[in-house]
Write a structure and sequence with these properties.
With 164 residues, this protein is an alpha+beta fold. It has two domains: 84 residues, no CATH class; 75 residues. The protein is 59% helix and 15% strand. A hairpin with a 4-residue loop joins strand 1 and strand 2.
């Protein structure tokens, strides 16, 4: 018993000494239509009703706890509760699953990147070969043009010398 509240059950529940309400953590099987799969609920044992925890109910709990326990103790109690439902709190299992999924994503992206890099290397080899062939053709054409121009110039010089 802590501050007038009694913990009971295996679900981590808390109830008041009068037995009028209980706060329980409930996990629903994956095939249930309830979403989220885990949530913090308040069960009124007298009325037999279940209410999900909202910001309004959290504030009411804080006010009532402040009256029963005192303001500092109520603030401490509220700090120990998650800010939202238990479904939003990450567990080690959740983190492990995310780590595995992230590693798989990184490996898949790495494989895709290696494939694309291989394709780019092939394209670069093809472009390099094409560039060398074009440079060879242009060098040959330039050489032939220079030889033709020199031959024409030599012919002009010879013709000019024959005139004098």
């Amino acid at each position: 018993m802590v501050g007038g509240m009694v913990a009971h059950g295996t679900g981590g529940g808390v109830s008041d000494p009068g037995g009028t309400f209980a706060v329980e953590h409930r996990t629903f099987p994956a095939h249930c239509s309830t979403s989220p799969s885990s949530q913090l609920v308040v069960v009124d044992e007298i009325k037999g009703t279940t209410v999900a925890i909202t910001e309004e109910t959290r504030f009411q709990l804080f006010q009532r706890s402040g009256q029963v326990l005192g303001t500092d103790e109520a603030a401490t109690l509220m700090e120990l509760l998650p800010p939202v439902g238990w479904a939003d709190v990450a567990t080690k299992r959740d983190l492990d699953q995310q780590r595995v999924a992230l590693a798989a994503d990184i490996n898949a992206m790495g494989a895709a990147l290696r494939t694309e890099m291989g394709e780019l290397r092939g394209e670069m080899r093809t472009m390099g070969g094409d560039l060398r062939a074009e440079m060879y053709r242009e060098q040959r054409n330039s050489t032939l043009a220079i030889i033709g121009a020199n031959t024409a110039l030599a012919a002009l010089v010879v013709a000019a010398l024959q005139l004098f």
